[in-house]
Write a structure and sequence with these properties.
The chain contains eleven helices and eight strands. By secondary structure, it is α/β, with parallel strands linked by helices. Pfam families: Polysacc_deac_1 (PF01522).
Length: about 260
């Protein structure tokens, strides 16, 4: 009995490691079971994505900026904010952008029971978005890009899990617009999925950080006008990969949705 008791803490630590760290390595490092970028092609497509909104101050400014430069983007929104600002969700949709899921609240999946993640965060947010715009989202990005083992095994059967290949590091005010501009211009390539934030009221972020993001993004879009890039939603960027046979991330509804929106 004493020997068994001595092994229990080690067994718990091992199981915790498997549950938490292996999926992080598989998804964030190896890109298994998720999408981190599109294929490089002659179209030179790039997908800008924005997390943590909608925000009543910064999201409208961002939408104005995207319209000015004729950019289509993807917004991974929080269900609680979608409930609070349905008009912004409608505007995002009406202006041709994609809406994805970023949980109901900005809570790390590692501290949520697996069955609650899908039911209380993902499906709940999908229901809210569908009630507002009449379309059910098919893409998901977990807060901080962190999945647990259950997520990696189950969620990809129902949702397209989208991470990123270029991070703006834009959630702190000390990251000036000049630093952001330089970082994005150095790293954006055909097929890039770019992560930025249109809200700064989540844990670890600065409330006014999106102001600098908007300043930097304006410069980036202006500088990139000389390059043959087209700026598309993630469902457009990843469309060929999804339709060509990698359907394990799509349920029947979302596959039809993507096909009807793009083909």
């Amino acid at each position: 009995m004493n020997l068994m008791n001595s092994w229990l803490p080690l067994a718990f630590l091992f199981c915790s490691f498997v549950y938490m760290m292996i999926p992080v390595v598989m998804s964030r490092v190896l890109g298994l079971g998720v999408y981190k970028k599109g294929k490089q092609s002659q179209q030179a497509e790039v997908a800008f994505t924005f997390d943590d909104g909608p925000d009543p101050c910064y999201t409208p400014e961002l939408l104005d900026l995207l319209k000015q430069f004729e950019v289509k983007a993807t917004f991974f929104v929080l269900g609680s904010k979608a409930e609070q600002y349905p008009d912004l969700i409608r505007r995002i949709h009406d202006e041709g952008h994609q809406i994805g899921i970023h949980n109901y609240t900005h809570t790390c999946n590692l501290v949520i029971c697996p069955w609650k993640i899908k039911r209380q965060h993902i499906d709940r947010t999908a229901d809210i978005i569908e009630a507002i715009i009449g379309e059910r989202p098919s893409s998901y990005r977990p807060p901080w890009g962190i999945l647990n083992l259950a997520d990696l095994l189950w969620l990809r059967k129902s949702y397209q899990i989208v991470l990123w290949s270029v991070m703006g590091w834009d959630w702190k005010r000390q990251e000036s617009s000049h630093k952001l501009t330089d970082r994005l211009l150095r790293n954006i390539k055909p097929g890039s999925i770019v992560l930025l934030h249109d809200s700064g009221d989540t844990a670890g972020a600065d409330v006014d950080a999106p102001k600098q993001m908007l300043e930097g993004l304006r410069i980036v879009l202006q500088e990139l006008k000389s390059k043959p890039y087209s700026y598309v939603r993630t469902d457009k960027l990843l469309h060929k990969r999804v339709v060509s046979g990698y359907r394990m991330d799509q349920n029947i509804h979302s596959s039809r949705h993507i096909k009807s929106r793009i083909i």
